[in-house]
Amino acid sequence: MVPFLCPICGEPLMEQAGSLRCGKGHSFDKARSGYVNLIPPNAKHAKVPGDNKLMVNARRDFLEKGYYAPFAKAVAEAAVRYLGERSHPVVLDAGCGEGYYTEAMAGALAATQPDVMAVDISKFAAEKCARRCPDARCAVASVYHLPIPTGSCDGVVSLFSPYCGEEYLRVLKPGGIFLMGIPGQLHLWELKKALYDEPYENEVKDYQLEGFFFEEKIPVEARIYLPDNQDIRNLFSMTPYYYKSGVDTDRKLAELPDLETGISFEILVYRKGK
Ligand SMILES: [Zn+2]
Questions:
Q1: Full set of structural domains in the chain with CATH
Q2: Which of 146, 155, 188, 203 lies 20 to 30 Å from 20, alpha-carbon distance?
Q3: How far is the CA of 48 from the centre of ligand 1 (A)?
């Protein structure tokens, strides 16, 4: 099994009676749910970094209703297509959230007996992920400083999470696979139309990433129907617009009884060179 690395000295952490401990004696307790907090104490800039409990719960409630199941299915299929031939592939979910996609991937790859690692900067997310995926090893950590050994991963997955190419290239084995999930151009178009006078389409970015070979783009499109206002508000809290929402948007949001909207994602597949 690939060890997590000590966030203080960088040595491998070994499991010892409910804690992870390095050779220099730094020790990190596992929470009851199974995750371990690997943020060094001096690096906690915000008091509670990452998504707060409310946001994590809203996202979990939304995802558990299956609205994004087409995307989870496509991610799982891509993971099998690119990693399913390897035995015991090491797969890192970088920015795992509450583990909805981690679980889908781990399940789809079960025949390979994967070693699934998952990190998120939010401890509320890592806790949910640890409960949802007991076979995955979950840690609170930043994707910009992954507590993961160099050249150890067969696959890295980043779904709607910050991109840190340097770190992903570092932890991937030569020939390793990077799967990135991003919103498509018209993702949630009808939701935006309901809330904004002048909705704008998502920007389509250049697919080339430094250090990676681009393999393919897998588009995922579907329509979903949200029958109640709470689901719509949960969905809205998962979007970047949530942070800049004003009084006018909040009022329109509160008045939406139901919503049918398109959802659109892209899975971009990359390979690290040999
Ligand atoms: Zn240490």
A1: 44-272 (3.40.50.150)
A2: 155
A3: 23
- Nearest Cα neighbor of 97 from 126, 70, 71 is 126
Q: List CB contacts of 188: < 8 A, sequence separation 6 or more.
A: 235, 239, 261, 262, 263
Whether residue 244 has pLDDT greater than 90? no
Could you say which DSSP state residue 86 is in? Answer: S
- The proportion of the chain whose per-residue pLDDT surpasses 70, expressed as a percent, equals 98
Residues 266 and 221: their CA atoms lie apart, in Å, by: 9
Protein residues placing their CB within 5 Å of the ion ligand 1: 6, 8-9, 11, 22, 24, 26
What is the number of other CB atoms lying within 10 angstroms of the CB of residue 13? 22
CA atoms within 13 A on the CB side of 99: 26
Q: Which long-range contacts (CB under 8 A, 24 or more apart) does 189-197 make?
A: 189/261, 189/262, 189/264, 190/259, 190/260, 190/261, 190/262, 191/232, 191/235, 191/236, 191/239, 191/259, 191/261, 192/241, 194/252, 194/256, 194/259, 195/236, 195/241, 195/249, 195/252, 195/253, 196/249
CA 28 to ligand 1 center in whole angstroms = 10
Positive or negative CA dihedral for 238, 240, 242, 248? Answer: negative
Q: State the pLDDT at residue 45.
A: 60
CA of 9 to the centre of ligand 1 (A): 4
Whole-number Å distance, alpha carbon 27 to ligand 1 midpoint, is 7
